[in-house]
Amino acid sequence: MFDITSSKLLILGLVALIVIGPKDLPPLLRTLGRYMGIIKRQAAEFRAQFDEAMRESELEQLKQEVETLGSAAEAEMRAAERSVETELSAAGESVNAAIGDAKAEATKAEDGTGRTEERTEELTEDRGEDGGEPAEARSRPQGAPSAAPAANGADTEAAAGEAALRAREQSGA
Fold first, then answer.
1. 28-51 in b/e burial notation, b at 16+ Cβ within 10 A?
2. What is the pLDDT of residues 75-88, one digit of tens each?
Protein backbone atom coordinates (compact mmCIF):
# COMPACT_ATOMS: atom_id res chain seq x y z
CA MET A 1 0.00 0.00 0.00
CA PHE A 2 2.33 2.74 1.22
CA ASP A 3 5.93 2.15 0.43
CA ILE A 4 7.62 3.51 3.55
CA THR A 5 11.26 2.63 3.85
CA SER A 6 13.58 3.48 6.76
CA SER A 7 15.03 6.52 4.96
CA LYS A 8 11.56 7.93 4.26
CA LEU A 9 10.56 7.29 7.87
CA LEU A 10 13.64 9.16 9.11
CA ILE A 11 12.85 12.14 6.87
CA LEU A 12 9.22 12.14 8.07
CA GLY A 13 10.37 12.07 11.74
CA LEU A 14 12.73 15.02 11.20
CA VAL A 15 10.01 17.06 9.47
CA ALA A 16 7.56 16.28 12.32
CA LEU A 17 10.21 17.26 14.92
CA ILE A 18 10.81 20.57 13.20
CA VAL A 19 7.14 21.37 12.52
CA ILE A 20 5.64 20.17 15.83
CA GLY A 21 8.58 20.71 18.06
CA PRO A 22 10.33 18.51 20.61
CA LYS A 23 7.93 19.44 23.43
CA ASP A 24 4.63 18.33 21.72
CA LEU A 25 6.02 15.35 19.77
CA PRO A 26 5.74 12.64 22.54
CA PRO A 27 2.04 13.34 23.37
CA LEU A 28 1.30 13.44 19.62
CA LEU A 29 2.96 10.07 19.09
CA ARG A 30 1.00 8.60 22.07
CA THR A 31 -2.28 9.89 20.64
CA LEU A 32 -1.34 8.61 17.21
CA GLY A 33 -0.54 5.18 18.73
CA ARG A 34 -3.92 5.05 20.52
CA TYR A 35 -5.76 5.84 17.30
CA MET A 36 -3.76 3.24 15.43
CA GLY A 37 -4.68 0.66 18.13
CA ILE A 38 -8.38 1.59 17.84
CA ILE A 39 -8.17 1.27 14.04
CA LYS A 40 -6.45 -2.14 14.31
CA ARG A 41 -9.10 -3.42 16.78
CA GLN A 42 -11.89 -2.24 14.49
CA ALA A 43 -10.21 -3.93 11.52
CA ALA A 44 -9.78 -7.18 13.51
CA GLU A 45 -13.43 -7.08 14.65
CA PHE A 46 -14.60 -6.46 11.09
CA ARG A 47 -12.45 -9.33 9.83
CA ALA A 48 -13.83 -11.66 12.54
CA GLN A 49 -17.44 -10.76 11.64
CA PHE A 50 -16.67 -11.27 7.97
CA ASP A 51 -15.07 -14.66 8.64
CA GLU A 52 -18.05 -15.70 10.78
CA ALA A 53 -20.46 -14.71 8.01
CA MET A 54 -18.41 -16.75 5.54
CA ARG A 55 -18.47 -19.79 7.85
CA GLU A 56 -22.23 -19.48 8.27
CA SER A 57 -22.76 -19.30 4.51
CA GLU A 58 -20.47 -22.30 4.04
CA LEU A 59 -22.39 -24.21 6.72
CA GLU A 60 -25.70 -23.34 5.05
CA GLN A 61 -24.29 -24.49 1.73
CA LEU A 62 -23.05 -27.75 3.28
CA LYS A 63 -26.46 -28.27 4.91
CA GLN A 64 -28.17 -27.88 1.53
CA GLU A 65 -25.73 -30.33 -0.07
CA VAL A 66 -26.36 -32.91 2.68
CA GLU A 67 -30.13 -32.51 2.28
CA THR A 68 -29.78 -32.95 -1.48
CA LEU A 69 -27.68 -36.09 -1.00
CA GLY A 70 -30.20 -37.44 1.50
CA SER A 71 -33.14 -36.94 -0.86
CA ALA A 72 -31.17 -38.48 -3.73
CA ALA A 73 -30.30 -41.52 -1.60
CA GLU A 74 -33.95 -41.87 -0.57
CA ALA A 75 -35.07 -41.72 -4.21
CA GLU A 76 -32.51 -44.39 -5.14
CA MET A 77 -33.71 -46.63 -2.31
CA ARG A 78 -37.33 -46.28 -3.45
CA ALA A 79 -36.34 -47.10 -7.04
CA ALA A 80 -34.41 -50.16 -5.86
CA GLU A 81 -37.38 -51.24 -3.75
CA ARG A 82 -39.70 -50.94 -6.76
CA SER A 83 -37.33 -52.96 -8.96
CA VAL A 84 -37.03 -55.68 -6.30
CA GLU A 85 -40.83 -55.83 -5.97
CA THR A 86 -41.15 -56.09 -9.76
CA GLU A 87 -38.57 -58.88 -9.94
CA LEU A 88 -40.21 -60.74 -7.05
CA SER A 89 -43.63 -60.55 -8.67
CA ALA A 90 -42.17 -61.77 -11.98
CA ALA A 91 -40.45 -64.64 -10.17
CA GLY A 92 -43.71 -65.49 -8.38
CA GLU A 93 -45.57 -65.54 -11.68
CA SER A 94 -42.95 -67.82 -13.23
CA VAL A 95 -43.13 -70.16 -10.21
CA ASN A 96 -46.92 -70.23 -10.44
CA ALA A 97 -46.67 -70.97 -14.17
CA ALA A 98 -44.19 -73.78 -13.48
CA ILE A 99 -46.52 -75.23 -10.85
CA GLY A 100 -49.39 -75.06 -13.33
CA ASP A 101 -47.26 -76.86 -15.92
CA ALA A 102 -46.28 -79.49 -13.37
CA LYS A 103 -49.98 -80.01 -12.52
CA ALA A 104 -50.82 -80.44 -16.17
CA GLU A 105 -47.94 -82.89 -16.63
CA ALA A 106 -49.01 -84.86 -13.57
CA THR A 107 -52.61 -84.99 -14.75
CA LYS A 108 -51.48 -86.15 -18.21
CA ALA A 109 -49.29 -88.81 -16.64
CA GLU A 110 -52.15 -90.07 -14.44
CA ASP A 111 -54.64 -90.08 -17.27
CA GLY A 112 -52.30 -91.74 -19.70
CA THR A 113 -54.31 -90.49 -22.66
CA GLY A 114 -53.08 -86.93 -22.76
CA ARG A 115 -56.58 -85.52 -22.21
CA THR A 116 -56.01 -83.13 -19.31
CA GLU A 117 -59.28 -81.25 -19.71
CA GLU A 118 -61.39 -84.40 -19.37
CA ARG A 119 -59.44 -85.52 -16.30
CA THR A 120 -59.87 -82.09 -14.70
CA GLU A 121 -63.61 -82.21 -15.35
CA GLU A 122 -63.81 -85.72 -13.86
CA LEU A 123 -61.98 -84.60 -10.74
CA THR A 124 -64.29 -81.60 -10.43
CA GLU A 125 -67.41 -83.77 -10.82
CA ASP A 126 -66.10 -86.32 -8.30
CA ARG A 127 -66.03 -83.75 -5.49
CA GLY A 128 -68.76 -84.18 -2.96
CA GLU A 129 -71.53 -81.68 -2.25
CA ASP A 130 -69.47 -80.11 0.51
CA GLY A 131 -66.57 -79.43 -1.92
CA GLY A 132 -64.33 -81.84 -0.02
CA GLU A 133 -62.16 -84.64 -1.31
CA PRO A 134 -62.96 -86.50 -4.52
CA ALA A 135 -65.08 -89.62 -4.23
CA GLU A 136 -62.08 -91.83 -4.96
CA ALA A 137 -60.19 -90.28 -2.04
CA ARG A 138 -63.12 -90.92 0.31
CA SER A 139 -63.34 -94.56 -0.76
CA ARG A 140 -59.64 -95.39 -0.52
CA PRO A 141 -58.17 -96.76 2.71
CA GLN A 142 -56.60 -94.34 5.15
CA GLY A 143 -52.91 -93.66 4.46
CA ALA A 144 -53.15 -94.67 0.80
CA PRO A 145 -51.76 -92.04 -1.59
CA SER A 146 -54.20 -90.01 -3.63
CA ALA A 147 -53.99 -89.88 -7.43
CA ALA A 148 -55.52 -86.38 -7.59
CA PRO A 149 -53.45 -83.28 -6.85
CA ALA A 150 -54.13 -81.51 -3.55
CA ALA A 151 -56.10 -78.26 -3.38
CA ASN A 152 -53.68 -75.78 -1.80
CA GLY A 153 -50.33 -74.45 -3.13
CA ALA A 154 -47.67 -76.43 -1.23
CA ASP A 155 -49.70 -79.66 -1.16
CA THR A 156 -50.49 -79.25 -4.85
CA GLU A 157 -46.83 -78.96 -5.75
CA ALA A 158 -45.92 -82.00 -3.64
CA ALA A 159 -48.81 -84.05 -5.03
CA ALA A 160 -47.88 -83.09 -8.59
CA GLY A 161 -44.31 -84.18 -7.97
CA GLU A 162 -45.45 -87.51 -6.46
CA ALA A 163 -47.82 -88.13 -9.34
CA ALA A 164 -45.08 -87.45 -11.87
CA LEU A 165 -42.76 -89.89 -10.06
CA ARG A 166 -45.48 -92.59 -10.00
CA ALA A 167 -46.13 -92.08 -13.69
CA ARG A 168 -42.44 -92.44 -14.48
CA GLU A 169 -42.21 -95.57 -12.34
CA GLN A 170 -45.23 -97.10 -14.08
CA SER A 171 -43.97 -96.29 -17.56
CA GLY A 172 -40.46 -97.54 -16.74
CA ALA A 173 -41.67 -100.79 -15.09
1. eeeeeeeeeeeeeeeeeeeeeeee
2. 999 999 999 999 99
Q: How far is CA 171 from CA 53, 117, 153, in A?
A: 89, 22, 27
Please give the model's pTM, rounded to 2 decimal places.
0.36
Name the residue among 156, 145, 150, 148 with its Cα closest to residue 111.
Answer: 148
In the chain, where the domains are located:
28-139+148-172
* DSSP string of 91-146, one letter each residue: HHHHHHHHHHHHHHHHHHHHHSSS-HHHHHHHHHHHB-TTS-SBHHHHHSPTTPPP
**pLDDT reported for residue 108:** 79
